[in-house]
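Study the following:
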Amino acid sequence: YQPFSEPETRAIQGVVEKYSPIDASISYHSRANSNQGLLIHPFAIDVYHEYKSKDSKLRIQQFGESMNPKKGFNFWGGREYFPDVYVVGNAKNAIHYTARGTALDWLYTKGNVSTPFVHESGTPCDRRWCSSRHEQIVKNNA
């Protein structure tokens, strides 16, 4: 595979290069087989890269944690709870995944995006499609 070999990756590259520097970016993905969402920040492999500064690393980590709600509403039980909606971290720490040359790492190191994230949404009904009962509960409480 060649970098930026797909039209959609070339489009992202073009936008980033045209408007750089960029404060933040979020790439959205879906995640099967888990109701736990992820907020992943650089790096997918931490052996070859370093953060631009300690402040940069701290800012990225704090930004990720700030997107993780401390209090929410449980649709199924109708009561408040304190969820860990997202696992926040780099790919290696969050999901034990390592790779070289990810888009996330490129955005941070070459694309001059100061706070890039990948958002991986989980499934709301614990590893399966929601039943019609759950769908109705969500509609009634939306």
